[in-house]
């Protein structure tokens, strides 16, 4: 097709009117699904879809599956904001957006199948159940995972680049002169393990030995109370010579708990100990201290997933892949640059980490 879409030829080949073809190619909703699929199939054969503007979303029904907590801003603000990003991305289009709560693992397969039969396409947020991934792949409908991965590589996905975000965050603290860094991590999901692996990679790149007994506090949740309690206990038993110069928290609420523990111990932020977060959206300031952080992409995930659905609609035979979104450094006042402090014992140089 040169210069313009030959709508009349598509109409003749598909046996529908020119106005129907125009509505389908414009992404309008007032066409029967069978007719729309037939028109799109012929348009694809003729090479017309290759020239369509990417702003046209050739879907009119979209189902979003997510863990129950994702629909409550107080339970999981991250996933709640991802869902808002999806809603904003489809708002300019004639798309009926529906939602279904689904457990991350041991999901209700019958419920999933029933909902998938009612939609043209789906987005799965944080769903790790491999059986659900298999069903989604076999149903042959556009489907994209968000902050999850299909280990058998059948479904495309979009996710924050957790490992690189962890590495970059630790590397920033090293660049500010810190060597005694204590990481506070909740490892309830593999994505958090990826962030921790990135932190370990940064230590390894500096030829420094990461000792999990000295440089890591593992938490059971992202709550500020648990972080404050665990860090407070750590500080009470930590010799002054081994006291960290910086805390790297895997979330804003963990960072808030760290600041509380430091204040209770009579330590100032950042004069005595710096605090940095890998999150950066929920708390711009903690106890009036502007928080330095690496912002994990959140709102962008929904828009990127919708674009991937469009690509699947335009090119259904394209191989699935994974899109990893980078974080963004926001420098505020909770991290200070230091020179080598001889009052702190140097960490061991080592070629491997624990």
What is the topological layout?
Blueprint: H1 7-14, H2 18-25, H3 33-45, E1 61-66, H4 77-90, E2 96-101, H5 109-116, E3 121-125, H6 130-138, E4 143-146, E5 157-160, H7 162-175, E6 181-186, H8 190-205, H9 212-215, E7 216-219, H10 224-237, E8 246-249, H11 252-264, E9 274-277, E10 285-286, E11 289-290, E12 292-295, H12 299-314, E13 322-325, E14 328-330
Parallel strand pairs: 1-2, 1-3, 3-4, 4-5, 5-13, 6-7, 6-8, 8-9, 9-12
Antiparallel strand pairs: 10-11, 12-14
Description:
This is Cytochrome-c peroxidase. This protein is of the alpha/beta class. It folds into three domains: 1-51, 434 Repressor (Amino-terminal Domain); 61-160 and 299-326, 3-Layer(aba) Sandwich (Rossmann fold), CATH 3.40.50; 162-296, Response regulator (Rossmann fold). Helix content is 39%, strand content 16%. It has a six-stranded parallel beta sheet, with helices on both faces. The longest helix has 16 residues, at 190-205. The relative contact order is 0.13. Residues 1-5 and 341-354 have low confidence and may be disordered.
* β-sheet strand percentage: 15-25%
Indicate the percent of residues in helices. 25-40%
What is the CATH topology classification name of the largest domain?
Rossmann fold
The overall average pLDDT, rounded, is: 88
What is the ordering of alpha helices and beta strands? HHHEHEHEHEEHEHHEHEHEEEEHEE
How many separate domains?
3
Pfam families: LacI, Peripla_BP_3
Domain HTH lacI-type: 5-59
GO molecular function, one term: DNA-binding transcription factor activity
Keywords: DNA-binding, Oxidoreductase, Peroxidase, Repressor, Transcription, Transcription regulation
């Amino acid at each position: 097709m040169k210069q313009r879409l030959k709508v009349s030829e598509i109409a003749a080949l598909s046996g529908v009117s020119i106005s129907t073809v125009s509505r389908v190619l414009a992404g309008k909703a007032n066409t029967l699904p069978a007719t729309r699929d037939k028109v799109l199939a012929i348009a694809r054969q003729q090479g017309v879809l290759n020239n369509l503007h990417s702003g046209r979303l050739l879907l009119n029904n979209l189902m979003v599956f997510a863990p129950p907590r994702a629909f409550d801003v107080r339970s999981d603000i991250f996933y709640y904001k991802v869902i808002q990003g999806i809603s904003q991305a489809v708002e300019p289009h004639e798309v009926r957006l529906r939602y279904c709560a689904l457990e991350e693992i041991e999901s209700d397969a019958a419920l999933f199948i029933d909902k998938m039969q009612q939609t043209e396409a789906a987005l799965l947020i944080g769903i790790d159940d491999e059986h659900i991934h298999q069903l989604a792949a076999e149903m042959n409908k556009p489907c994209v995972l968000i902050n999850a991965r299909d280990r058998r590589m059948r479904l495309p996905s979009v996710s924050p680049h957790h490992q690189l975000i962890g590495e970059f965050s630790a590397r920033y603290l090293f660049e500010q002169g810190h060597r005694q860094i204590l990481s506070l991590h909740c490892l309830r999901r593999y994505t958090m393990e990826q962030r921790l692996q990135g932190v370990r990679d940064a230590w390894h790149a500096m030829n420094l030995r990461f000792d999990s007994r000295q440089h890591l506090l593992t938490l059971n949740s992202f709550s500020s109370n648990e972080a404050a309690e665990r860090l407070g206990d750590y500080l009470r038993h930590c010799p002054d010579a081994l006291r960290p110069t910086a805390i790297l928290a895997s979330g804003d609420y963990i960072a808030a708990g760290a600041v509380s523990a430091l204040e209770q111990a009579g330590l100032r932020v950042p004069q005595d100990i710096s605090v940095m977060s890998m999150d950066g959206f929920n708390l711009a300031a903690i106890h009036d201290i502007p928080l330095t952080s690496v912002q994990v992409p959140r709102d962008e995930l929904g828009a990127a997933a919708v674009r991937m659905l469009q690509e699947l609609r335009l090119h259904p035979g394209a191989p699935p892949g994974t899109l990893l979104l980078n974080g963004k450094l926001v420098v505020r006042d909770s991290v200070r640059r230091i020179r080598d402090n001889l009052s702190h014992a140097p960490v061991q140089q080592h070629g491997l980490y624990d």
